[in-house]
Amino acid sequence: METPWRSRRGIAPLREREKRDTKSKPQVETMSPAIALAFLPLVVTLLVRYRHYFRLLVRTVLLRSLRDCLSGLRIEERAFSYVLTHALPGDPSHILTTLDHWSSHCEHLSHMGPVKGQILMRLVEEKAPACVLELGTYCGYSTLLIARALPPGGRLLTVERDPRTAAVAEKIIRLAGFDEHMVELIVGSSEEVIPHLRTQHQLSRADLVLLAHRPRCYLRDLQLLEAHALLPAGATVLADHVLFPGAPRFLQYTKSCGRYRCRVHHTGLPDFPAIKDGIAQLTYAGPG
């Protein structure tokens, strides 16, 4: 049976349109298996070289987020529950050891750890500061280290911006046996607290300062301490995590402004010693 003339006339334009549509559609190209295999050695090399960073990422981000969702508690709150059932009240040393054990065997706590802790305690004992200012209380680990090493009559002011984290730190500090007269916990951002330390917390000078909050805030807060004349000549400023994740602008300022003598104590991250980090030790020469 012959196709009607009108139908035959419509077939040719339809085929032409199909050809044009086919040409206008973007061609989806797939990577050939050979090219994918060529990148495999590079991927394996990166995984091997940076395996410690991948482990850190998994433990501090992926697993932590999952446990937060499942338990409804933050890692600091879970750590405090562990301390409450395993540590001896009134014994700061045992509480610190318990936190180290929790971080190594349960969940990475992102705390200072025993290696850096020994450096901190040694410097506090050497300097014997009458008053210490800590920015970044976190779970209270470094707070206990400082309080243990303070000379008789020494005073520690510690600042934590997050109220929920500060509540945990307060419990740990009091569990260790330090009262409000020796260790005062201030809740608020360092940027807002520093200008009012003299008037609201009777801090006229800080003989030793520990920066342990956010490395990107170190330079700003150091300059605030200078501007409000809270650093006497000879004061010691310690800054954690200056190599990882790093505080390059802070280090550049302290080395180039001419008002500080600077050295870095090289260490590794707690539970990840292959990841290099360090504590900067600054000695303030005065406004100059």
From TrEMBL:
Entry GO terms, CC: apical part of cell; endoplasmic reticulum
Enzyme class (EC, first level): transferase
Substrates-to-products reaction catalysed: a catechol + S-adenosyl-L-methionine = a guaiacol + S-adenosyl-L-homocysteine + H(+)
Compartments in which it is found: Endoplasmic reticulum
Regions crossing the membrane: 31-50
Domain of life: Eukaryota
Region span, Disordered: 1-27
Record-linked Pfam families: Methyltransf_3
Keyword NADP: no
Gene3D superfamilies: Vaccinia Virus protein VP39 (3.40.50.150)
GO biological process, alphabetically ordered: auditory receptor cell development; catecholamine catabolic process; dopamine metabolic process; methylation; positive regulation of protein import; sensory perception of sound
Residue stretches of biased makeup (Basic and acidic residues): 14-26
Principal subcellular localization: endoplasmic reticulum
Keywords, in A-Z order: Catecholamine metabolism, Endoplasmic reticulum, Hearing, Membrane, Methyltransferase, Neurotransmitter degradation, S-adenosyl-L-methionine, Transferase, Transmembrane, Transmembrane helix
Known EC number: 2.1.1.6
GO molecular function, one term: catechol O-methyltransferase activity
Keyword hit for Cell division: no
Role: Catalyzes the O-methylation, and thereby the inactivation, of catecholamine neurotransmitters and catechol hormones. Required for auditory function. Component of the cochlear hair cell's mechanotransduction (MET) machinery. Involved in the assembly of the asymmetric tip-link MET complex. Required for transportation of TMC1 and TMC2 proteins into the mechanically sensitive stereocilia of the hair cells. The function in MET is independent of the enzymatic activity.
Family: Belongs to the class I-like SAM-binding methyltransferase superfamily. Cation-dependent O-methyltransferase family.
Protein name, as recorded: catechol O-methyltransferase
Organism encoding this protein: Propithecus coquereli (Coquerel's sifaka)
Origin organism lineage: Eukaryota, Metazoa, Chordata, Craniata, Vertebrata
